[in-house]
């Protein structure tokens, strides 16, 4: 029995409750919330502390420059999205992107989904107005409903139980796919079956899959068929936003007596909740999972150093990942100073680029969107900065889906604003669809190999 569940022990670790917690729901009935949290505290962990430590070790390799992080998935998972088809299609897209990056860039890829727990959303505005009616904003399925009705928008703590159950069901299927052979590299063609004929990205992928096949056949012919090729690791992550939930899901590991948030392998703190004197940092500082922090364009180098002191005082490589999301127009100006100061201080963090959240805009049609070119440009800027400083561009953090949605403009099919209404299905931010995601993976692999400057990669894209 790896975890102690005594509430006496748990209550010692609630120091975050004395600090201001941004972006928390206005739960109408605090007693109902408390009853839900009491119940969550009795539930089994979704992940095991040892798995979190394994991910820390993988992220340490990223920080040392020996591996690349691919972190991706929905902006907001939904309870309705917990179906075999949708889970398989998200996993498939991540596996295809990882195959492209591993083979195309010759680097081990650490795969982390925004999955099995990404149900809570921070928002820019507390309310939303449509046709003169003002209601509280949607804060993710863990809090309230997306439907624009007064009833749906009331925060309901019962949803936190559904978050746990939906996370468990999703994770169960992900684990089954991973251990049952679906993620075996020998399946590299089958992930593409429903895709290859219809899409240039699918056709390009098919050619790469053939090369992987040849390489595997060559290795087998040489008598080498290492089991590592048939085993894949896949980890889960989400934003640690609703602290009552995350705290109720924290447990002591009986092996080490260390505390872990067992709702996911990795947690990150968002741009809107990373205040140095706030509750989210306090909570994250008390759990041993690998932690990410989003760094937006207002982040100062001193803030970055203070974040390291708070979250990684022992300087454990792999513990802390900085996920920068500056915007394509700002990254080349703002990132160098952060990286320089952090590097000079001697802290070994993993640097990862989120090219989505600094590049959101409202299209002429009223849809919240992102342009594939801006996404690509931010990644290119990220590579340029790290290359010029001699530091490691450690990965990408992206909002993607396995479905053929029309949420971001540009990419291989050159979607335009007028296309967005066709399949705009995101509950929150616009995601890259499957073919845009694969396009991105190919271009990132080129940048990683050093062949792709920003301009060069844009030319490759234009002539395809
Ligand atoms: O994904 C995240 C945030 O919730 C989102 O970017 C905020 O979007 P908003 O400006 O629509 O609230
Ligand atoms: C809210 C998000 O990002 P950020 O905190 O960077 O705005 C997100 O990742 O969905
Ligand atoms: Mn988002």
Automatic annotation (TrEMBL):
<comment type="similarity">
    <text>Belongs to the class-II DAHP synthase family.</text>
</comment>
<dbReference type="InterPro" id="IPR002480">
    <property type="entry name" value="DAHP_synth_2"/>
</dbReference>
<protein>
    <recommendedName>
        <fullName>Phospho-2-dehydro-3-deoxyheptonate aldolase</fullName>
        <ecNumber>2.5.1.54</ecNumber>
    </recommendedName>
</protein>
<keyword id="KW-0028">Amino-acid biosynthesis</keyword>
<dbReference type="Pfam" id="PF01474">
    <property type="entry name" value="DAHP_synth_2"/>
</dbReference>
<dbReference type="InterPro" id="IPR013785">
    <property type="entry name" value="Aldolase_TIM"/>
</dbReference>
<comment type="pathway">
    <text>Metabolic intermediate biosynthesis; chorismate biosynthesis; chorismate from D-erythrose 4-phosphate and phosphoenolpyruvate: step 1/7.</text>
</comment>
<keyword id="KW-0808">Transferase</keyword>
<keyword id="KW-0057">Aromatic amino acid biosynthesis</keyword>
